[in-house]
Amino acid sequence: MRRRAVGLLTVILPLAFFFISTQASAVDLISAKDPKAILNIARGFGMAKLKKDIFGDPLIVGRINGTKYSIYFYNCRKNRNCKVIAFKAGWEGKKVSLEKINKWNKDNIFGTAYKVDEETVKLKLPVDLEYGVTEENLEDIFERWTSILKDFESEVLGVR
């Protein structure tokens, strides 16, 4: 009887661990294929609307703490099944030296800044979502973007 119980356990335990690990890894992931899911997260950080860009790809426009931003969708097939998003913000009428922009880019790994012309500065944060991220991870990316906007406006633009 004891031998039979041990034999049964050697079959049941691995199966139990398999089913438990399968359940644990069955987490819903958000990818760039689902603009509405990204929009729902964006709305938790302020006003946000889903639109289309000039190519017909999804585009989210919104505000975080009063700052306008957009989320562009890239590597899309027929305006769907996108793989990458990029957070972008721009400020016009701001004369910022190239040295200040370069210092920002040197000191900050996230949020690349660039000048479009003498009075226009842009900031971007690309995010590869091809294989998806958890809701918590995407919220963390939005929190990072919120922090980047605040720091950039303070350190580079002299706002706030």
Would you mind describing this structure in some detail?
The chain is of the alpha+beta class. The chain has one domain: Yope Regulator, Chain: A (2-Layer Sandwich). Helices cover 39% and strands 28% of the residues. It is built from 4 helices and 6 strands, in the order H-H-E-E-E-E-H-E-E-H. Strands 1-2-3-4-6-5 form a 6-stranded antiparallel sheet.
Our count of helices gives 4
Which regions contain 5 or more consecutive residues with pLDDT less than 50?
A: 8-13, 15-24
Radius of gyration: 22 Å
Report the sheet-strand fraction.
Answer: 25-35%
Q: What's the β-strand tally? A: 6
Strand order of the largest sheet: 1-2-3-4-6-5
**Number of domain modules:** 1
CATH architecture descriptor: 2-Layer Sandwich
Query: Helical amount among residues, as a percent range?
Result: 25-40%
Question: Which descriptors apply to this entry?
Answer:
alpha+beta; Yope Regulator, Chain: A; 4 helices; 28% strand
List the helices and strands and how they pair.
Layout (H helix, E strand, L loop, with lengths): L1 H23 L10 H9 L4 E5 L5 E7 L2 E8 L9 E9 L5 H10 L4 E6 L2 E9 L6 H21 L5
Antiparallel strand pairs: 1-2, 2-3, 3-4, 4-6, 5-6
Characterize this entry briefly.
With 160 residues, the chain is α+β, with helices and mostly antiparallel strands. The protein has helices spanning 2-24, 35-43, 98-107, 135-155; strands at residues 48-52, 58-64, 67-74, 84-92, 112-117, 120-128.
